[in-house]
Amino acid sequence: MIIINNVTKRFGDIVALDGLSFNISSGTVFGLIGSNGSGKSTLLRTISGVFEPDGGSVDIDGEATYENPEVKAKCFFVPDFPYFYNNSTIENTAIIYRQIYPNWDEEYYKFLCSTFPVDRKKSVINMSKGMQRQAALILALSTKPKYLLLDEIFDGLDPVVRQLVKKIIITNVTDNNMTVVIASHNLRELEDICDHVGLLHKGGVVMERELDDMKLGIHKVQIAFTDEVAENIFEGFEVVKLSRRGNLFNVTIKGDFNEIMPRLEALEPAFMEALPLTLEEVFINEMEGAGYDINNIL
Amino acid sequence: MTSTTFSKFRQGKSFFLWSLYTGKTTMIIYLSLLTFFCSVIAVFALGITLQTDLDASVWEAASYFTLFFTMLLGFVFTFVFSIKEFSYLHDKRKTDMFGALPASRRTIFFSKLAAVIVQSALPVILIITFLSIMNGGTLTNFFEMGWIFGMPEAEATDKNLWYMLLEAVVGLITNAVFLGFLSVCCGKTVDKILTYLIINAAYPIAALLVQVLPGSFLFGYTIEINEFFTCALSPYTSVWSINPAYWGGLTVLLGVLCFFILPKRKAECAQSHFAFKAPLIITKVLVSFAVGMVVAYFFGIVFSAIKLDKIAFIIGWIMGSFIAYFVFQIIFAKGFKRFGWGMIPYAALGVCFAVMITVLLTGLFGYENYVPDADEVESVSLIGDKQVIVDGKNVIDGTITGKKQIEECIEGHKEALAYCKTHTKTIAELTFGNNSFDNYDILMDDLNGGAVKFKYKLKNGMTVSRDYGEYWDSEIKFTKSKTYSYYTNSLFLIDPEYITDLYFDYDYDEDTNDYESEEYDDYDAVFEIDGETYALDDSSFKTKDKRIELVQALRSDILEYGEDSGTGVCYVNLEYGGTDDYAFENDFADYPIRSTYKKTVELLKENATKIGKTTKNKVSA
Question: In this complex, do A83 and B11 lie within 8 Å of one another by their Cβ atoms?
């Protein structure tokens, strides 16, 4: 279990993490989402022990990570731009990981090399961005980490490899109780794989909960009326977003589903349907709530 | 509890081997260059030995040049390997990789440091070991080729190659550790390079000029350049240094510092700012001070001509130091960010300089005017610590202990001081007139080098030294005294027993040069006295008794008539020596024989060959 307790991280005058607190349970896939500069990558670096928190603590299985090789041996951090030496290949980079990580699994390494469409004897530095990420992931998974920290891992991957990555991650979570923390802006991918999501904004956590719970508190409904209706027909609802085309409304409303739907039916619509809410919509909604000026940006 | 990581040693070994593995291309380049240079050197050495009259053999010459280039390349590649290995501290992507690895920062750093040392030092060790074995452990004739290592010819002796190997290895390790220390402190590789170069270049300049500075402002100050102090914070010099114990100690100290500061180093400094500010401040202050001093001396010397040297010196320092500090502040801070805070060390430096100059201009707390009382003085020497070594022992003793002579010296000291006070000397005169700059006496007849200097040993055990330079000695009466002549001239201070040979030569005065013609080729010196021409050859005074007789006559005449009286007759060159050919620091001295030296001239006439009357320029006794 990862316990993030009141963690603060400053870079000069900039507060990247501001008293951040939440837990990440073992065996879960935790999605870190947030605006640019919200502190996602900083949090991953702090969890992995690259950065030392200025305040608070990050504990993995009850122990601090910073300068703690015992704990770090259970983690693997794949940054947004993984580093490879000039002319290094997956094969020769594996030499050092093999010697440093006590849980290195040679069979699994060979399996991954044969599964991912990359040449393990080719210079990594000359590979495409997506292939470099695959190379990093092969090496990461071969160390059999208990905690896998991934920063923008889907960036640059083609749809087939994205599915492969998700599949391998889920297999590891299921079979090995691996905990995965993924920071990404690709909410569509996160939605498929994550069971928990933490939303960061300006170094603080806006919300952190199970994905399903997150969606439970907000609902999108398409609703049509036969007659002309007043602009304020949804008064009394906690409307997050409202769009209208004639008498057809798309409305996003906060609240309990079982309470909202009867109230909407009471408005006697000609047609009403609850639509699935995407993580992106939840993200935008929550960010708006956190003071993010969505309208100006969009 | 079962450990989930490998042992530190095993991890360290892995990082070490990994560094060697990833650095193999650089190593190949290093070895290729070394092979190339050694081959070229062998040919070069062959050329030198064939075209010059060096005593060194081809093999010796090749060994010297190989040593030089091996050590130079070793130093350069220490730098290259250090940049490569420690870039993980300065590159964000590498920082992510290494920071997340399950190993402590210390394990990673010291493994990489070991790799830098091994990679850069191994070829040097192999080559010097090879040369040591081939040369039997010692390179002879080092005195002829010591210049390759920046060693003055007079100080060079045979060189023990095994000791040289120790020096080279310690020097390379010092550089590697110093570069490692800077890597930990700096956030960017470019900052590390700049810091390293500036500290190595600016420190010796600053240290040298700090030692010269009092001599440029104070009358009587003896400028003494301490080689150790001048090089102490310039690790580059450790490669050529003769003080491996000090560099070893500094290496250990820097290593310990790295050990303690590594865990406190913030990873986010990579590609950003200095992790620890000390090297940054030291670098800016050093370069500022050094540039300030160079400009100050330039201004001071230029404006000495119009006696505005001191104010020009101060203005020069302010200009030079400020511009240097300003430029490097902007370079290191990447602009004007926190400019005010960044200027605080400069302000502190300015205050220190102001205090230092004020103290010097006001006579260094009475230093300038201090002349000891005769009652306080146990002894005094007019030649300082000068020694003439024959067969391993000093054969001169210029110590004056007689009360009357001590009083005479003290009066002479007061006269010199008073003279200086009334003849204000500029920075240029004081700096370049200070005789202590001249470390190598060509002639040893004037053992004080023509300067007016006093070295007192006080009864309380303290020593007081004053050196008034050489420009004004002829205007100070004390320099005409018998005491001065006796106690500053090797003719008196060295027992004539040590004279092994003597040679005559023409006087250098223009009016007697006419004798240097083919007509007198058979003679070593021809002189004319009272209308008669006499010829001397070196065999005239070859016996020991004759030599002693000549020296005693010369001593008597100098004391009676002074050193500069009358016109020149000829020169006598006395050769001193012992059984050890190279033990004698200054093995000859030229003494002019003057026409006023009655006893000496008479002795010359007795032993010379009379070759008749002459129509050439006459010398009158």
Answer: no
Domain ranges of chain A: 2-211, 217-297
Judge whether B1 lies within some domain: no
Q: Is B434's pLDDT higher than 60? A: no
Residue B492 and residue B552: Cα distance in Å, rounded? Answer: 9
Contact B96 A73 (CB under 8 A): no
Pair B468, B572 in one domain: no
Contact B124, B70 (CB under 8 A): yes
Distance CA B105, CA A157 (A): 33
DSSP state of B514: G
- Termini Cα distance of chain A: 38
* B241 — pLDDT class (breaks 50, 70, 90): low
Instruction: Tell me the ipTM for this assembly.
Output: 0.85
Q: Does B90 touch chain A (CB under 8 A)?
A: no
Query: At residue B517, does pLDDT exceed 70?
Result: no
Please report the pLDDT score of residue A292 as a whole number: 62
Domain count, chain B: 4
Q: Do A99 and B101 touch (CB under 8 A)?
A: no
Q: Which of B9-23, B38-52, B521-535 has the highest mean pLDDT?
A: B9-23
pTM for the predicted model, two decimal places: 0.79
Token digits of residue A190? 């996160």
At B322-333, the pLDDT tens digits run: 999 999 999 888
CATH of domain A217-297: 3.30.70
Owning domain of residue B299? 202-217+277-363
**CA–CA distance, A43 with A199 (Å, rounded to integer):** 12
CATH 3.20.20.10 fits A2-211, yes or no: no
Query: What confidence tens digit (pLDDT) does each residue in B286-320 have?
Result: 999 999 999 999 999 999 888 888 999 999 999 99
Q: Which residue of B has its CA nearest to A81?
A: B93
CA distance B574 to B580: 17
**What's the longest Cα–Cα distance across chain A?**
73
